[in-house]
Amino acid sequence: MKRESHIRSLFEPRSVAVIGASAKPGKIGYSVVRNIVQGGFKGKIFPVNPQGGEILGLPVHASVAAIGEPIDVASVIVPAKLAFSAVKDCADSGVKNIQIITSGFSEIGEVELERRIVDYARSRGARILGPNIFGVFSATSHFNSTFSASAITPGRVAILTQSGALGIAMIGKTAVENMGLSTIVSIGNKADIDEADCLEYVMEQEETRVILMYIEGVKDGERLIERVRGATWKKPVVVVKSGRSRRGALAAASHTGSLAGSDEIFDAVMKQCGVMRAESLQEAFDWCKFLANAPEPKGTSGVIVTNGGGVGVLATDACEKYGVELYDDQGALKEVFAPVTPDFGSTKNPVDITGGANSAAYNLALSATAAHPAMHCTMALYCETATFDSENLVPMLRATYDAHDKAGKPVVYAVVGGAPVEDAIVTLRKENIPVYGDTYSAISCMGSLHRYHRFNRERDDQIDLADIDVAAIDAVIDGALADGRGFLLANEGQSVMRAAGIPIPGAAIAKGMDDAVAQARAIGYPVVMKVVSRDILHKSDAGGVALDIENDGEVVDAYQAIMRNCRAYKPDAIIDGIEICEMVAKGTELIVGARRDPQMGPIVMCGLGGIYVEVMKDVSFRAAALSRGEALKMLSEIRSYALLLGVRGEDQKDIAPVVDTIIKAATIIRSVSRITDIEINPVVVYEKGMGIKAVDVRILVRK
Ligand code: COA
User: Looking at the domain that runs over 294-458, which CATH code has it been given?
Assistant: First the structure.
């Protein structure tokens, strides 16, 4: 059965049973029944409790089996020790979705019980939401099976949250903010249904304009990536993820029983999928509320209008930080704003209409930005002044917001001042007018809008795969595993590189002097020569290494010298031959890697390589499902990218084969499931047209 086939019936059921329904106000089993009834649910409601009786006028059934009708959703609210049998009854009665509100499972180490419950439900074709959740709300079906104390206002924002308590708190906050919800669902321990499943519902839900996810840890990153990629095409997705700090990650791990993934990887992968990560819940709320109401900008040019130079500069900084471009046609700016700007003001962007500006001046200036076809969005700033007719502040903000709204243009306001200004913020936010008490908050919202649309304009969801010889790589891994190793030897790693077509330094083992000359010529001078003998571990000590051999004559001399030295060093040593290696010229050293992240799945990495990798930590990550364009973007993000472009008159380095290597490493990790880690370091990069060399490679494998 397809995983998603159930998901809509979880949010839009035709019938719901509440197992552990209670007639006692104050109990969760009561609140859930009350919320379903009072929420206006049109389907059938069946409270279940062996004690029977009535709850809110509904007859109580002794068991699920006794209902005798098809049930789309059952909400389980009995203590953990009774949960398995409650789920069993539901699954045996053909219930499609079972939401388990009860706590006391994997989050406190009861992993086995949780697994048993899910296995049983799945074996009967039922899906589990939770356990350890507060329930589900969908505005589409007027279905509120949460135990929230406050009613939920229907609206345009969908919230998917791993933390139930935070979810309940968010319901309260959305009420205060007048930010209506289209859906809210708590995913809890996500023993079965996870955020990827719920995304499937909300991305298609007509009422949802914006999706907000609160995530502590990811369990199946690959599926999540696929889903959010689909979702961001349709609507903005904002994520708040805890566990950014080390301590935070530990707290999150003990909180939900799932380990928080490496934060940098999560961050990079979400960015790659167009998901916007907010720093805080407040920022996430601000973005969501704004994104739910703002029109799509018709272009990228914004105008700042201010009555104070200081906040104007702050706003300009914020525009740079959050990626809002500023309109720059000085002639047009002068023409539009000169009538409302005194000589000591400025018509340059930020437009400073000065501290003397009254509401009429603001009305004129902001009507002009709403009307001007080349000004695509407005950021209006106001600092409280004695000359402003403050009784007109709220009407001015309303009127200019309406003008922008009618023109289909986004606008944000940042207003700073005392009690009347604070009151204006509270009043207007209730009307969903985007007014903030701080410049950065206002402009970060405008930035999120531009970022979302820019991402979709420029997005590149193509997945480029390289042509690699998987069978040859598998054969190498078979050998290593048969040998009892979880890692590949140097020559095995080189075989994998060859199978993937990643250039490695040339090397061959010569069986005699003439062969040595032939091999050295084939590889190309200069070369290095090394004795090959299992009896000589320290080759240099034995005089078994010769560097920088430049011609045939030197090969002959070195060959004789190595043989002589080694025989003197260990007369009975068995010498298998002499290895002739290409002498790798100096170049820019990078690292390219790939790994199977336990949470986010296959990922690739590139960065500054060599011996400073750990110190510099100049690396960037992506999900391994990526295009060449994305691989180049990833490379260009590292601080050392300037070294590849060439500094101080150096020539540009050969970037294309580095991109090839990233795609090849990504292809290996995606197609060879027994490889868990690949690290190629250094990848020596030469000047443009001269290619690269993967000098050293380490590969970890598993059964
Ligand atoms: N079928 C149906 N009802 C049953 C039952 C069964 N097999 N066995 C017991 N019940 C009834 C009980 O009789 C009781 O009804 P009553 O109120 O009429 O007496 C009701 O189910 C609940 O059982 P009770 O033992 O009173 O438990 P409780 O209400 O104190 O606690 C939970 C139950 C689920 C709320 C509690 O175990 C829990 O997990 N709390 C945390 C919930 C939470 O925070 N979740 C995460 C949110 S983010």
Answer: 3.40.50.261
DSSP 40: T
| pLDDT tens digit sequence for 191-219 | 999 999 999 999 999 999 999 999 988 88
**DSSP assignments along 265-330, one per residue:** HHHHHHHHTTPEEPSSHHHHHHHHHHHHHPPPPSSSEEEEEES-HHHHHHHHHHHHHHT-EE---H
The answer as to CATH 3.30.565.10 being correct for domain 7-290 is: no
Work out the pLDDT band at 173, boundaries 50, 70, 90.
Answer: confident
Give the residue, by CA position, lying nearest to ligand 1 atom 16.
22
Q: Is 53 in the pocket of ligand 1 (CB under 6 A)?
A: no
Residue whose entry in the numeric block shows the structure tokens 């290619």: 691
The topology (CATH level 3) of 588-701 is D-amino Acid Aminotransferase; Chain A, domain 1 (3.30.470)
The answer to whether 456 and 232 have CB atoms below 8 angstroms apart is: yes
What are the pLDDT digits (tens) for 356-377?
Answer: 999 999 999 999 999 999 999 9
Task: Say whether 506-582 and 7-290 share the same fold.
Answer: no
Whether 99 lines ligand 1, by a CB cut-off of 6 Å, is: no
Instruction: Give the CATH architecture of domain 506-582.
Output: 2-Layer Sandwich (3.30)
pTM to 2 decimals?
0.90
- If you measure from the C-alpha of residue 57 to the centroid of ligand 1, how many angstroms do you get, rounded to a whole number? 20
Model pLDDT, residue 489: 85
Confidence of residue 536 (pLDDT cuts 50, 70, 90): confident
For the chain, give every domain's residue range. 7-290, 294-458, 506-582, 588-701
By the 8 A CB rule, do 213 and 186 touch?
no
